[in-house]
Amino acid sequence: MRFHSRASRSLASVLALLLIVPSAVSAQTQNRVNRSAVAADAAAAEVPWLYRDSDVPQDKEWKFGELANGMRYVVRQNGVPPGQVSIRIRMDVGSLHERDHEQGYAHLLEHLVFRQSKYLGQGQAIPTWQRLGATFGSDTNAETSPISTTFKLDLPNVTAASLEESFKLLSGMMIAPVLSERNVRAEVPIVLAEKRERGGTAARVAEATQKTLFAGQRMAIRSVIGTDATLKAANQARVRAFHARWYRPERAVVIAVGDADPALMASLIEKYFADWPVTGPAEPAPDFGDPVAPAGADPANPVGETGVIVEPDLPRGVNYAVMRPWRPVKDTIVYNQGIMIDSLAQAIINRRLEARARGGGSFLFAQVNQEKLNRSTDATFVSITPLTEDWKQALTDVRAVIADAMAEPPTEEEIAREVAEFSVAFESGVEQRRLLAGSKLADDMVTALDINETIASPETVLSIFRQSVPLFTPQAVLEHTRKLFTGAVIRSTLLTPKAGEADAAALKLALAEPVVADGKARLDSKPISFADLPPLGDPGAIKADVATGVLGIDQVELANGVKALLWPSTDEPGRLTVKVRWGAGFRAFRPEDAAYITLGDMALVGSGQGSLGQEQLDRISTGRKMGFDFEIKDSAFQFSADTRPADLADQLYLFAARFAQPRWDAAPVLRAKAAARLQYESYAASPQGVWQRDGRSLQRGGDARFRVPTPAEVEAATPEGFRQVWQPLLEQGPIEIQLFGDFDRNEALAALQKTFGALPKRAPLPSTLQPPRFAELPASTTPVVLTHRGDPTQAAAFVTWPTGGGMAGITESRKLEILANLFQNRLMLAMREKLGAAYAPQVSNSWPEDLENGGGLMALAQLQPAAVPMFLQTADEIAANLIARPPSADELERVTEPLRQQITRASTSSAFFMYQLEGATEDPRKLGAIRSILPDYTRTTPAEMQALARKYLVRGKSWRVAILPESAPATAGGRSSGAEGR
Predict the structure, then answer these.
(1) Among 3.30.1050.10, 3.30.830.10, 3.40.710.10, 3.40.50.300, what is the CATH number of 2-273?
(2) Please, which of 203, 557, 926, 957 could form a disulfide with 544 given CB 3.0 to 4.6 Å?
(3) Domains 303-438+445-512 and 537-583+612-662+733-762 share a fold
């Protein structure tokens, strides 16, 4: 049962914050649709194809159909966001279907269908979708997995004509791509570039892990990306044979969800896919294989294949899997009740493991997760990050916690705690069902097909859950726990930075050793009530309450100076976001505070408040929809949370108590220190990691506050030093609160008065603030060279043209976004389509609104080391061309129309306006700037773009960075920098 309000196994809520308006297409077309031609509306008593052999109640909003050629489809009307239709075409073919000489063909074919097809000329797919308002890479995309290939289109501003054109184009791509020798030869270098960019250390670890865990199965020998040899050997005959064998109508499902009449969508699917021919008998899928224990394995503890992976720049990690054969299931209510008990058992174990890690155990992190993976296994995976070199102790300690869960049932209190968490998740799904984005619904249907299960409405999920609660007994959880850790074979890998530390035999022996059940991690699960917590002080008075004149947003000021922006709206039922912005952000730190900046990002929230430590903070929010995210920005700090109306008052208390009653527990700081130390060396393993480690500091003239601290700096940090740095920061600077969403205004005001209104007046920001430094690298055509210790075939290059910052130039910053998109299209065409040198070159525009400088237009790409000079030259040529000649009207339209659609869709969400108005109580110009967003981003001229290019894209004003492998630092002809580290 795939319930579309959240991932069915992880319960992770991913809901779009978008409003609903009447359908943009249905009113125009409903009288012109021939209903009799629509199979989805046939009044047959037949069960829809997804629900056959299932007693899960059908979600009636989905309309199902099946064509005579065997192709299936499903459509659904949805107005989130307005005017958009999301189309997915799932082909039941992935890397596991490939023959030995075809490795990588499923993914290669995913690329080729975009290159040329029946209705699309050579290289016309991207510009065609752009003219329809779809952004390449986000609105138009595709992905290949071991078992399927899915093509994605989110079509904005949909009309009857654009919808028909889209189905027509997509049908040509699936049924009749032009698989010529020329196209194969053109696309293979792009796929090899993608393989290189996604390769390196992480890919080696993933491949080695896959080979061990799936030994003897097809998954062990089939990488989705393929091999260099098989890709280079690809030709039109082989690719055409693969397409003919697997791109058949009976292996296809077309999904369409959005702001259009379902009957219209179904009729168009029939019109363009009904003549997909069935040629010859279908070839059955190959046998993916079963996990099998080696001969002589202990049936009680069937440890099989193990492997040790040595990567000097990565932290230690132990993974093991209790593996069972994958088999299709009948997706019934009883089956799903069992899945719920499985999820409950895992949640209890994971909470116990987290408690052990927080308490200073032998591991930094450990988690269990049951998953049915790629129709190859039903496995329970255990992942462990040891704190020290003693990986055996960490493995033993985790296994001991699991052994206890298998030996004794959980308490009623532990079960009740997890049931309360599940309940609030499922209830939120019902409350927020109107906010479900069509793209999310379409993707959930794809996942349901991947896992061979049905899909259910949020109401059905909640109903089944509530009916099932009496089944969640300690004994039932115990029995399911035992089944989760019983399987045909146990396989494991150890990742270590130290060669010779262990071998496969040592790992196998460690897994086979008996452990003593450890019940010390069982938690006190008695609830804590907010009603038992002391007030933060006397409620504060409201000093001012005025309308901003923007939408329905009001600004409230409390007597102590705290300000709030309130936008109550019933358009987002059950959805409420709270942001608390305060202080000076990075400006408040000294250069020597680098370690405490990183540790604060990890540990400030966990260090507790008042009488509540980290565990108590978890317990007090049990069964509540509450959060506590933290972010350090250039000019402010920010707490944020998604909550719901019933929990708003307590969410505000939780945030305000962090200022009123800070607590400084040492354990979260010590754990954060361990995490920072373990992570540091991994930055050197790839060009991306080096940029993440050094890039922000480099962009800011070597400002140490933006540098990842070294292990020695982290080691020198102390809990006492942590408090000395962070306590003053909690006490100074104005506080701004944003409340946007579904809430009662009077109740929210009362809660604000009792919480933030009760705080003492804030200390002003100190006069010694140090804004970030920017653009201090000398402009030069010679790049600064950094080095990495990863794959010698990987490099990266960056060119930055400094621009500006501040609200006074906000309109120009938005015009620069148009220029960046023009640059992006040209860079993609040159580096990917023509040269095959980079898979996904990017151009980005930044403009800090709260700082007076620091913006830049940056072009970047991941490359082979030898291609770095080519990239730098190409970027300069594009910049020079934009200076010399204005873009054509068509080229400009292919940028501004997707931008128009992005903004139009985003602006149906309160989250969009929250982001735009962060800091507006201190800088009212942000309120006025809201009104000009759409014209600023979409109205321009070729001449205006040329003028911007002449102002900023001057070669002598840019600076550049190359990140090369240590073995070849001179390839880019640059000068080395001391920014790299170990």
Answers:
(1) 3.30.830.10
(2) 557
(3) yes
| Res. 33 pLDDT band, cuts 50 70 90 | very low
Whole-number CA gyration radius for the chain: 29
Cα angle 235-240-243, degrees, rounded to a multiple of 5 = 130
Give the neighbor-by-neighbor strand order of the sheet with 489-496: 303-310, 489-496, 317-324, 377-386, 363-373
The class (CATH top level) of 303-438+445-512 is alpha beta
5 versus 699: which is more confidently predicted? 699
What CA–CA distance (Å, rounded) separates 793 from 444?
Answer: 37
With tokens 């149906």, the residue in question is 908
Q: Which residue has the tokens 């735009």?
A: 916
* 700 phi-psi bin (left φ>0, alpha ψ -120 to 50, beta other): alpha
Q: Is the CATH number 3.30.830.10 carried by domain 784-976?
A: yes
Residues shown for the chain: 982
Task: State how far the Cα of 254 lies from the Cα of 167, in Å rounded to an integer.
Answer: 10
Tell me, letter by letter, the H, E, C secondary structure of 26-58: HHHHHHHCCHHHCHHHCCCCCCCHHHCCCCCCC
pLDDT single digits (tens) 924-971 = 999 999 999 999 999 999 999 999 999 999 988 898 999 999 976 455
pTM above 0.85, yes or no: yes
| Per-domain residue ranges of the chain | 2-273, 303-438+445-512, 537-583+612-662+733-762, 590-608+664-731, 784-976
Between CA 86 and CA 742 the distance in angstroms is 27
Q: Which of 76, 268, 71, 264 is nearest to 166 (CA)?
A: 268
Using a 10 angstrom Cβ sphere, with 0-12 exposed, 13-18 middle and 19 or more buried, the burial of residue 301 is exposed
Structure tokens at 525: 């699960």
Q: Please count the other Cβ atoms lying within 10 Å of the Cβ belonging to residue 138.
A: 12
